[in-house]
Amino acid sequence: MAQFPTPFGGGLDAWVISLDERAKHDQQFVSLAPSPAGYITGDQARNFFLQSGLPPPILAQIWALADMNNDGKMDMHEFSIAMKLIKLKLQGHPLPPSLPPSMKQPPLTLPPPPTAPFGKGLDKGRVHLNSLEASFPPSALICTAG
């Protein structure tokens, strides 16, 4: 099985598109006026991607990786993949030889936040992990010996 190095070293999967990145990419995608079917053309993408300053041959490699079904157009997910690859390349990281499995995953979505009666107790036991939040009852965070 092919190993995909993490560009930042360590155990974090740098190929994963964060929720914040995805939200930004989605806004950019919508600004390009996709078709009613939810796609942008190669011309629309090329003109936008050229603004990154990356050379056209590199952008062609990114397109080849991100256009997962090779249909010559991009949906919102494929566009987000391309934007993440552009960001990593601009940071000096090499492009992968093939699309890492974590980038092929559908984007993560968060469930609606829990509500508490009268708005009390929402922040108790909240742990922040890479833009994702998990809420635990305070009793679950207490360690007892014995």
From TrEMBL:
It holds the Pfam family EH. One of its GO terms (molecular function) is calcium ion binding. GO terms for cellular component: cytoplasm; intracellular vesicle; presynaptic membrane. It comes from the Eukaryota. This is Intersectin-1. InterPro entries: EF-hand-dom_pair (IPR011992), EF_Hand_1_Ca_BS (IPR018247), EF_hand_dom (IPR002048), EH_dom (IPR000261). Residues 54-89 form the EF-hand domain. One of its GO terms (biological process) is clathrin-dependent synaptic vesicle endocytosis. Residues 21-110 form the EH domain. Keywords: Calcium, Metal-binding. The gene is ITSN1.
